[in-house]
Amino acid sequence: MKILCFSLGQLQANCYFLIKNGECLIIDPADEASFILEELQRRQLKLIGMLATHGHFDHIIAAGEIQLSIKTPLFISSEDRFLIDRLEETAEYFLGFTPNIIKPTPINLPTGEAGQLIGVKCKIANFEFEKIPSPGHTPGSCCYSFKKEGVIFTGDTLFKQGIGRYDFSYSNRNELKKSLEKLLKIPKDTIVYPGHGEETIIGNEKEFALTLF
């Protein structure tokens, strides 16, 4: 599996292209829909789906416009659907102006039962992965683990030498800590692709992440 990373929009959210046999699965469609669509066409990729690590506008703002051009699902946790309803409001707050936003049509991935599994196995076309609930930054934050490839996409839960904010009204400090404790148990050589900034590995974050509370 080939992984491409593009940092898009004013908040530089990471948009990931996961590529296999000419098919592309996007994790966090972020911003700049025209750029994403041009890249798909230039690289002759078939978009088969989009996964959102959480519902914050800077990670999904391009999804609706992409869906106008390509009929493809946006998968997001049901607990974060309320953030889609707030897209214009939150974008205006953080950007200082109201962008022209086309709201995406979301679909829920299975969530499983809390506490029973570290992840819920999912498959989209040739892509097999686990959805790992990681609430705290937002109620529906999740990570996507591709065990065969040894990589995990952590959104705004875990960064290189950093963790997600938990000062929003809907955030939960204790839940974020539990989520991080769970993530830090996965193999230490797993490559972490975060929602912002550079990649890292789990082993480099084990001693640091939980000191930030």
3D structure, described in words:
By secondary structure, the chain is α/β, with parallel strands linked by helices. The protein has helices spanning 33-42, 57-60, 63-69, 81-85, 87-95, 173-183, 202-205, and strands at 2-8, 13-20, 23-27, 46-51, 74-75, 106-107, 120-124, 127-133, 142-146, 151-155, 158-159, 162-163, 191-194, 200-201. Strands 1-2-3-4-5-6 form a six-stranded mixed β-sheet, with no helix packed on it. A hairpin with a 2-residue loop joins strand 2 and strand 3 (23-27). The radius of gyration is 16 Å and the shape is globular. The N and C termini lie far apart (35 Å). The relative contact order is 0.14.
In short:
This is Metallo-beta-lactamase domain-containing protein. The protein is α/β, with parallel strands linked by helices.
List descriptors.
single chain; 213 residues; alpha/beta; Metallo-beta-lactamase, Chain A; six-stranded mixed sheet; 7 helices; 14 strands; 29% strand; zinc; metal ion binding; hydrolase; Metallo-beta-lactamase domain-containing protein; RibonucZ/Hydroxyglut_hydro
